[in-house]
Amino acid sequence: METAKPVPGTTPPPPGRTGRGLSPLQTFLRFLLVGSTLTAVLVMVTSKQTKLVPVPALGIRARLPAKFTNSPALIYLVVALSVACLYAIISLLASLLLLRKPALKLLLLLALMDALMLGIVASATGAAGSVAYIGLKGNKHTGWGKICGTYDKFCRYIGASLAVSLVSAILLLLLTVLSILSLYRRIHY
To answer: Bridge partners of 50?
Structure first.
């Protein structure tokens, strides 16, 4: 019986590599992505604080709430993270399917969607981060004062949500790289 000879010009896969489409690491990262996006959304939507704040023009103190819905950038972050969480759940199910039966088209779709979600989450995190920075430091040139001295709990929640959102963006970056590497291995081996 003859043994199969490699086709000239191609190299066989390295030992231990079967040419599978997806690694268990990607599935684990997708699971972490579900948790991080969901956590960031929950922390952001629960960030509400009401304080008595002096109103200089009227000379009185008024009860003013601070909540994420007061800022379009924070709303954008919640929407972007919600979409990313839904995508993470769907892609987690798809990755479980790919562990059993690799499919090149699904690998390509995951790689493209990972990159798209990375762009959305990174842009939303940056936009919300800039608003949070202004809330923390203020802006003397435009006359915007610091609000984190007054709304300390609100600002801590926003900061925590932004930190977890940044973790989500890093996870998406890793998933994008791993998805592209999976495609490369699948095509070249």
So the answer is: 65
User: How far from the centroid of its chain's Cα atoms is residue 5's Cα?
Assistant: 46
Paired strand residues for 55:
60
Beta strands in the chain (DSSP E): 48-55, 60-67
Q: Report CA-CA distances (Å) from 91 to 4, 109, 146, 187.
A: 37, 10, 40, 21
Q: Among residues 113, 86, 114, which one has the least CA distance to residue 175?
A: 114
Q: With contact defined as beta carbons under 8 Å apart, do 50 and 67 qualify?
A: no
pTM over 0.90: no
- 139-179 pLDDT, tens digit per residue, is 888 878 888 888 999 999 999 999 999 999 999 999 999 98
One DSSP character per residue, 35-71 reads HHHHHHHHHHHT-EEEEEEEETTTTEEEEEEEEGGG-
